[in-house]
Amino acid sequence: MADREVAVVTGAASGLGFGLVSSLVARGLSVVIADIDGDALVSAEKRLRAEGADVLAVRTDVTKSESVLELSAHTLDRFGRVDVVCLNAGVSLRGRAWELSVADWRWVYDVNVFGVVHGIQAFVPALLEAGAGHVLITASNSATTTLPSLAPYVSSKHAVVAVAESLQHDLREVGSGVNVSVVLPGAIRSGMADAVRHRPADYGSVSVPVPEDLTRASRAYLARFGADPRAMADDVLQRALDERRFCIFTDPADAAMLVDHAGALSDGGLPPLVAPVSQEVK
Ligand SMILES: NC(=O)c1ccc[n+]([C@@H]2O[C@H](COP(=O)([O-])OP(=O)(O)OC[C@H]3O[C@@H](n4cnc5c(N)ncnc54)[C@H](O)[C@@H]3O)[C@@H](O)[C@H]2O)c1
């Protein structure tokens, strides 16, 4: 069994995932990097190895249970242990709720929700056996509200917050010391505006192609206003692993948004829209 702690990160080749990997490496962990984008994964692995990191790259499609089980098997074969599991891969797609096809909805749910479910099934048994460890799930600040033209994404992120809460309750009820955290990030400088490039062929093509000018605007928004992924990862890991926080906001204003949203619902109303359309890129 490896002496150092071992982390696994999904969606590791880009954005927040790569930030989490770099930050975990800086903390002295060996890291298994998993992503559907094989080329980006190879570049990430080379870059990390050149910096002296102990990394193992495993091409993984989180929409497929077998693929995530293989990721877990590779991790345990190579290192004999797993300590931190970051279920971070996510995709987004714009379109009206009734215009997007069922395949569009399924793709977003299969990555954002079932990707997390597959990760729980593949890794939590090993964490339970070890009696310790941490599962960090990436949701979004859009789980504190709702936005038009993003129904699959926003609803999938509401779902994973509830999955994370339920998982922690389940673990506590069986007396396990395994901890769970969920992060609800604000905008990140990342490749999210081009998420459709990672759509597996079995979902067919997108039913409502996003106009190029909107994609350009999303890219520009994230490049200009998105947080630095490594700095965000350092902060998130400190609060998750060191302070053992369950729920992590990267912007305190998002916590307030959650309160306002719940207040509007409990008053029997439709919560007002809080973000301008130009920000619908998460
Ligand atoms: N970008 C933002 O503003 C923002 C805001 C809030 C939350 N988030 C969340 O942060 C997480 C990371 O996203 P990011 O912004 O770094 O985007 P990103 O596109 O830079 O990174 C996402 C990674 O996930 C990978 N991926 C996509 N489908 C996959 C699949 N089926 N299997 C395995 N890997 C897959 C992609 O190849 C990519 O490397 C996501 O869960 C996203 O929803 C992003």
Can you tell me about this structure?
This protein is α/β, with parallel strands linked by helices. The protein contains eight helices and seven strands. It has helices spanning 15-26, 38-50, 65-79, 102-130, 151-173, 212-225, 229-242, 252-266, and strands spanning 6-10, 30-35, 55-59, 84-87, 134-138, 179-184, 247-249. The chain has a seven-stranded parallel β-sheet with strand order 3-2-1-4-5-6-7, with helices on both faces. The longest helix is centred in the middle third of the chain and has 29 residues, at 102-130. The protein is globular, with a radius of gyration of 18 Å. The model is unreliable at 276-282 (pLDDT under 50). The protein binds nicotinamide-adenine-dinucleotide. Nicotinamide-adenine-dinucleotide binds at residues 10-11, 13-17, 35-37, 40, 60-63, 88-91, 111, 138, 140-141, 185, 187-188, 190-192, 195, 198, 222, 226, 282.
Task: Give a brief rundown of this model.
The protein is of the alpha/beta class and 282 residues long. 48% of the residues lie in helices and 12% in strands.
